[in-house]
């Protein structure tokens, strides 16, 4: 049986980070009529692969059939200089840059509000490093402490945008937190139109390795889910460098060797 997960878009805006949820759950771009939902990679890229010899390979089908593509929702472009990592031209108001992206290594010239996101900056080292403010919330329909989520690059991302996804994974079944894309910029002129695939998500830890995702039908996620996201994000903020080990080393669920007798 497939493992079912819900998802809901959220936005790490300046105003949202000061709200009760500490994130924007009702950003205008998140309405279903506008929002481009994640889809399986095979569904999205079928025309690119269906005539190739590997397309019907069960192993390839299983891997990419359980990989979901997440899209950019609004046009974003910027230019930066290699000498010092300064973002000097943007398609958005630089005074509200955090509503679009967070510069982690480098600068955008007008950043008086980093503290709203608790963002930590690091010295610039040859590459601009940014995080997209568009985020996703994923949570399992049924509790599963073995469940992990992983972000992997969309195959054409680097070629089309000049950005390299910084991959990551964490134990989703024990640590509900938002997922967003972090990137190392190689191109000094970056243009990311709406609808551009930004990254893919994969899951592991389910019973049979098959995963189905569905948008939560409500306007906002359930109160208990929102509370867990807020608390877990707060744990990362208040215990920097320690929250990862607390969650990663939590005891995983063990399957009873005789469980087949009760099916």
Question: Would you mind describing this structure in some detail?
Answer:
By secondary structure, the chain is of the alpha+beta class. It has one domain (3-262). The chain has six helices and 14 strands. It has helices at 14-17, 41-49, 58-65, 157-161, 223-238, 243-248; strands at 3-11, 39-40, 67-71, 76-80, 87-90, 101-105, 128-140, 148-152, 163-165, 168-170, 179-185, 189-192, 197-204, 211-215. Strands 1, 6, 7, 9, 11 and 14 form a six-stranded mixed β-sheet that branches. Residues 112-117 have low confidence and may be disordered.
Q: Low-confidence stretches at least 5 residues in length (pLDDT < 50)?
A: 112-117
Broad shape: globular
- What is the arithmetic mean of pLDDT? 88
Helix content, binned percent = 10-25%
The percent range for strand residues is 25-35%
Return Rg in Å. 19 Å
- Find the structural class using helix and strand composition: alpha+beta
Major sheet, described briefly? Answer: 6 strands, mixed
Order of helices and strands: EHEHHEEEEEEHEEEEEEHH
Distance between the termini: 13 Å
What's the total helix number?
6
The count of DSSP E runs of length 2 or more, i.e. the number of strands, is: 14
Count of discrete domains:
1
């Amino acid at each position: 049986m497939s493992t079912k997960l819900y998802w809901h878009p959220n936005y790490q805006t300046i105003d949202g980070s000061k709200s009760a949820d500490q994130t924007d759950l009702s950003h205008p771009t998140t309405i279903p009529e506008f929002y481009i939902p994640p889809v399986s990679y095979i569904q999205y890229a079928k025309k690119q692969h269906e005539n190739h010899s590997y397309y019907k390979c069960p192993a390839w089908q299983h891997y990419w059939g359980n990989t979901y593509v997440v899209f950019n929702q609004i046009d974003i472009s910027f230019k930066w200089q290699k000498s010092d990592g300064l973002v000097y031209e943007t398609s958005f108001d630089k005074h509200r840059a955090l509503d679009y992206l967070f510069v982690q290594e480098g600068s955008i010239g007008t950043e008086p509000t980093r503290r709203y996101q608790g963002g930590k900056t690091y010295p610039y080292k040859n590459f601009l490093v940014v995080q997209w403010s568009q985020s996703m919330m994923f949570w399992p329909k049924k509790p599963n402490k073995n469940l992990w989520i992983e972000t992997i690059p969309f195959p054409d991302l680097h070629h089309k945008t000049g950005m390299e996804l910084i991959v990551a994974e964490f134990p989703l079944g024990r640590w509900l937190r938002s997922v967003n894309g972090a990137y190392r910029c190689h191109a000094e002129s970056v243009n990311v139109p709406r609808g551009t695939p930004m990254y893919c998500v994969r899951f592991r830890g389910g019973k049979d390795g098959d995963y189905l995702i569905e948008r939560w039908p409500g306007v906002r996620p359930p109160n208990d889910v929102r509370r867990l996201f807020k608390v877990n994000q707060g744990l990362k903020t208040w215990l920097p460098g320690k929250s990862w080990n607390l969650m990663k080393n939590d005891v995983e669920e063990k399957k009873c060797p005789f469980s087949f007798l009760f099916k």
